[in-house]
Amino acid sequence: MRAPTFRNRFTETFGVSVPIIQGGMQWVSRAPLTAAVAEAGALGFLGALTQPTPDDLMREIARTRELTDQPFGVNLTILPSINPPPYDEYRAVIIEAGITVVETAGSNPASHLQFFSAAGVKVIHKCTSVRHALSAQAAGVDAVSIDGFECAGHPGEDDVTGLVLLPAAADALDIPVIASGGFADGRGLMAALSLGADAVTMGTRFMCTAESPVHENVKRAIVEAGERDTELIFRELRNTARVASNGVSRRVVDILSNGGEFADVKDLVAGVRGRKVFEEGDVEAGIWTTGMAQGLIRDIPRVADLIDRIMAEAADVHAAAGSGFAVSV
Ligand SMILES: Cc1cc2nc3c(=O)[nH]c(=O)nc-3n(C[C@H](O)[C@H](O)[C@H](O)COP(=O)(O)O)c2cc1C
């Protein structure tokens, strides 16, 4: 299958050849996946906090550069925490390593922007509402990636799906808008472009590729799962997260919806359990992130083949889309 060429303000701004981003994924977006995405012409992000220390991030960036000479970025997820990671040190490594694009997520990135901007690093801020996207634009980010309710991870608390969120954001913003959440194929990409987005971000779809470092059992679980097989945990805590439906996530939902508190689920949601899922392949061991897009995922392709396929499908949809219109004379 020969992929068509594509150009728009997203590809021009970020120096890539397809309007596709591999979003930062904790424990998943490491050198082999992000380098494969870069080699295939899309924009991949390493997860900064997947690396235990800023020095480890420096080494992971070097490892990625051994695998590709194409551009790639780093995701910096800024979450409120009792013992926050040394964000400023991770930021300093990103700048020192000469990374040219960062994906920020979580809290408002305003306090980091002057440093990135002074170093010529472009910032794509990931958020879940038009109002947060407007704040990010006002703070000076270069683009926003907007996660709809369908997404893996944190969809926010508004429950607005991409079908409304994307055109609403495209109408309100001047900077490029990237559609995130629920995208897995060329139909989705064309839909996003039609709704006013400049590109798509995919997480779950990239987690289920040959180069993704998660255990084969996790990939097979995604292929077998349907669009209904996710749970929304932490709703009561106003920190909603979309994760795989399994015995652990269903128990967490049950405990919290019956008046339990975070302390009652703390052990169930521990990060070490989730890591065990990805590393050892026991998909019932803990909480692990996946999105509704798994209902569209039926294989475990190599990244380059996936991207070629998505672009070819999008071109087919584009060609077919106009065929129903009749021009009256
Ligand atoms: C396993 C996994 C881990 C993720 N970890 C992060 C993260 O650490 N930071 C972040 O900003 N987004 C994270 N995400 C969200 C993705 O970057 C992306 O926004 C999301 O997956 C888009 O929805 P989709 O999965 O439907 O494509 C994660 C997603 C997955 C599947």
From TrEMBL:
<dbReference type="InterPro" id="IPR013785">
    <property type="entry name" value="Aldolase_TIM"/>
</dbReference>
<dbReference type="InterPro" id="IPR004136">
    <property type="entry name" value="NMO"/>
</dbReference>
<keyword id="KW-0560">Oxidoreductase</keyword>
<keyword id="KW-0503">Monooxygenase</keyword>
<keyword id="KW-0288">FMN</keyword>
<keyword id="KW-0285">Flavoprotein</keyword>
<dbReference type="Pfam" id="PF03060">
    <property type="entry name" value="NMO"/>
</dbReference>
<dbReference type="GO" id="GO:0018580">
    <property type="term" value="F:nitronate monooxygenase activity"/>
</dbReference>
<protein>
    <submittedName>
        <fullName>Nitronate monooxygenase</fullName>
    </submittedName>
</protein>
